[in-house]
Amino acid sequence: MNTPRVDSAPTRNNPIDHLAAAQKHSSLGTIYRIILLNLRHPWKVTAAIVATLIASGFQLAMPRLLGAAVDQAQPLVGGGAGAQAALSALWTTALIILGVQILRGLFTLAQNYYSEAVGHHAAYELRLACYEKLQHLSFSFHDRVHSGDLIMLGIIDIDGVRMFFATGLVRFVLLGTLIGIGAYLLISTDLLLGLLSLSFVPYVAWASSVTQLSLRKTWLDLQDRMSHLSRVMEENLGGTRVVRAFSASQHELDKFDRSSQHALGLAHERVKTRVTNTAAMNFSFFVSMGLVLWFGGHKVMAGEITVGTLTAFLTFMTILQMPVRQLGLLVNSFARAATCGSRLFNLLDLELAIKDAPGAKDLTVTEGTLKFDNVAFRYPGANDNLVLSGISFTARRGETIGIVGPPGSGKSTLAHLIPRFYDVSGGTITIDGQDISKVTLKSLRKAVSVVAQDQFLFTTTIENNIAYGNPWAKEQRIERAAEYAQLHNYIAGLPAGYHTIVGERGVSLSGGQRQRMSIARSLVLRPDILVFDDSTAAIDAGTEQRIRSAMKKFSAERVTLIIAHRLSSLMHADQILFVEGGEIVERGTHEELLAKGGRYRALYDLQVRPSDDSTPTEAAQ
Amino acid sequence: MTDAALEEDEVHKGKRPPRAVVGSHRPDEEVFGKAYDPKIVRRIWAFVSPYRGQVAISVTAVLVFTLSQLAIPLIIRFAIDHGMKVDGLDSSVLAWTVGLFAAVILINYAANYVQELVIGRVAEHVLFNMRRAMFAHLQKVSLNFMDKTEVGRLMSRLQGDVNSMQEFLETSITSVGDIVLLFGIVVVLCTLDWKLGLLTMATMPILFIVRIFWLPPAKRAFMYAHETNSIANGALAEGINGVRTVQSLDRQRVNFQLYDDKAFENLRSHLVAARYSQVMVPIVDTLTGISMATVVVVGGQMALNGHLDVGVMVAFLFYIQRFFDPIRSLTMQYSVMQRAMASGQRITEVLDVPLDVTDKPGAVDLPRDMDGSVEFQNVTFGYRKDQPVLKNVSFKVNPGETVALVGPTGSGKTSSMALVHRFYDVWEGSVQVGGKDVRDVTQDSLGREVAMVLQEPFLFTGTIIENIRYHKLEATEDQVIRAAKAVGAHDFIMKLPEGYKTKVEQRGGNLSLGQRQLISFARALVADAKILVLDEATANIDSYTEMLIQQALHVLLQGRTGLVIAHRLATIRNADRIIVLQNGEIIEQGNHDHLMQKRGFYARLYNMNYASFDDIPDEAIPAAQIGAAT
Q1: Which ipTM value was assigned to this complex?
Q2: How close B12 comes to chain A (CA, Å)?
Q3: What DSSP string describes A435-492?
Q4: Residues of chain A positioned with their CB less than 8 A from the CB of B236
Q5: CB contact, 8 Å: A268 with chain B?
Q6: Which of A187, A341, B16, B593 has the greatest number of beta carbons closer than 10 A?
Q7: pTM
């Protein structure tokens, strides 16, 4: 049986490469899928291809017309009525030339425009599909795949696929027509001259393909080296204080030089490959032309062909020169589309690890009771030990559960299981008796809100950030949430108030303010279960106390889970669970646990009464 | 109707929520400057001039190349008119004409090769030097400037601007060729037959005029398309970086709609841009058609009457197919030049940032056997005129002593620390290390004797061992491991997949804050300086790691002079002496017990019973002051 690839599959080392290596389809299969994608716009595709055929037809007609004009202008025929006829023939040819040029221009416009349009439409659809997919892929996928790689996928790979129709498919049709029909016309006019004028084609086609492929390879290498260089520069500038603290600017300059020279060497190589090749292609073209001139000249002298025919041959050659050189670009376009496409399709084909079960119903919250029953968890794809095991507890509406334990004990993981950021590996989590894996994700996540340790601050107004989970929320509700989170006074004091832009390019907030913002975000949602995942660490104890009292009424109507390492954050909880090594080792109220004199007591002593503790220095003395 | 139901409904109707956006976008800085600015050209030329010999070779090659291109139709014309007399049995003229053709194409080949290769190399070298000059300059500019300037902005100077200079340098040679080609064609056509030549070229000014009108709106369309691209990509990046928040707040649906708006605008703007760029095709083709028709009718008639050689007509037809190319690329080159001038301007701006702190002429190395004392003598210092951050501060840290600097935010702690390392120069007074004024010694030697640990542990891309060793490349693996063991980092390092060879992810993403802290301690230990200046992390670290850090700190300070900006009570209590700063002045000093007995500001803050001084809310500080005053 074929096991579907689940989105947690990629390994840690080189996720995108891994995606590419796991490809299901060959290059041809990828190209086929891209073509199918383009065919979603059948009229535009047809328009582009028909316009291409017509435009190249007009282009092929041109050398003959010019040749005819040259012949009509031969003075030898001259004399009396003949001259009159010749003149009108010249007029006719001239008008035809003009008409053909205009039509060729218009059809080329159509060809270029429609082929670009098809590409842009395909890119638009792919963008949306990728965005949708990335938004829904589970946490474990995003844990493993570097965000920068995904962003590049959305930029560079989509571009590679976008370009395919215009630079690959349409160019293929264009080159095929021009070279095929052109060759036929030339050879059928005069075998020897025809072959001579085409003699540069095989060499140039081969050379440009080989060169383009090697340029592509060195280009990718060069990108790598350049990104190394920019990392060196970026880190240096970002860490300028460290650099100066160690007086290490010489060391940094050496790093820069090494990285820069490394890239420079490759850049030189690229220039050389490209130049050598262009020069050689030009030369081979001119050699063919010289041969046509030599043998054609003899034929003209022998009276076998006219000067007009020779002109037509020479013009044909200039027309063919460009498309033949572009064969290399064509090959490149196919190669690029195949790799970019396979990366994209690999992403789009991933199955969501966390999604609604078939026939899932909406969660209905009545009592608001959260129950963990013998829950176990290990990270998907990892065969190592369980991160959590045997976790059982019940929390009723109005209750607060505190969870504490050393770093790495699995506290945060536990919080992530409730909204199904990860699925349990054993046991069940239920809300009012409904297994959370059997209800719809949307209804579950509406009922459960996790205030994360480090929430993302979007670059927009404070108001928009607080209302992130419910952008329809009324102003009043947003302000109320900010008041609860003890953030309102600060915001009201800002010149632009709730319309102040924060985030990467706005006013920067301190760690504590960011955490309060996250709290406000969750409060706007009024969830049935509210989980604080170590989300008050940067908030000072006094403010935290005020948040707690402001929320008293709010907490009475829902289940609250507080994960913290500062005991003052959770001492008041109805039940405290001490988690170590993925298991609950102690449970009870603050007083009970203190009296017990176990792990909790030890932590309490360490934190709350530091003056009684013999500190390392004193111990050393 | 509940909010949720309402929301569903509105989204179905295609309405967008009132308070939702995806992505943020800052428009690019003004990209176009003057097309020619002599001052900037002079500055750029300073980078090019070391290679002027090669530039000369390249320009010569371009001239030769262009002239040989021009000669080819002429040779064909000559062959047709003089080498191909029908019934002519003498092929000697044809033979030497073709021979000439062969010679010209060989020259063409060589010139083509030389021009591109040489200019390509020159451009790469010039860029390398330009980038290096900027980068080296940024190593020395004042920290004030670095603090005010986003790294992203500097990076776009180092990359984007340098790249547009590259484009400029490479294409400028091509435009020399284009200009020569354009004039060459005009000259050749007029020499062959000036009347026919002028008639044929009558379309050229038309193209110029059309392009002048076309260029501004087209450029706007191209730039807008470019901008919508970065908008859509920015929104995508935001969606990926914030995916956990998006999922936990269930915003996928709304975001998708908003993203769709942006992606669609991107599609639309690209289609507009495509129309602009393609509309030139039929115009150029029509103009070419008119010129060709003119040659056929007028030239043909002249040929019929025997006033013109047929070969000349053929040559005309060949030239016509080429003469719109240079016009097209020259008008494009104009934009490249504008962009390059703007970039050149920004590059020179970076190079012109003044250096505040430099080695004095005749600065000496700080002797390795100096005693390790640090002394502030009546130091006054600030970042902005008339706003001193430190006011007449004097204190001395004796060799081997540990002094803790404490005080509320903005009291001048961090500034004092920066002055020891001479990140800035004092306004008045002096800072002395080992009895020498820091302004009289070389910065390198000062850096060797004063190690610094910053609040935010900064790790570089590379392995753990490279990070601990940092610039002390001569430190052996053994030394590194010893340092890591001393600060208690060894155990967790060994648990990492590849131990000391484990690669640190961007900014140390695969390590916890506490672990990064310990690594930066180990780095300072390897640097082995007599004086250690340390800014303790304020961020909350769990109690377990906290304990490790306290132990490490103890090891680090052993046998060194220590100046610690302390936030944690444990650190403060263990210091030999505590200096309390407020508003740039020393208000109290002494050891913990002494200060507690004094019942001043320090005692007040301490008694508020916060685990760290940074936990004290701003509102509480005035209370402590009042308390201290009474």
Answers
A1: 0.86
A2: 14
A3: EGGGB-HHHHHHHEEEE-TTPPPPSSBHHHHHTTT-TT--HHHHHHHHHHTT-HHHHH
A4: 127, 130-131, 134, 151, 154-155
A5: yes
A6: A341
A7: 0.82
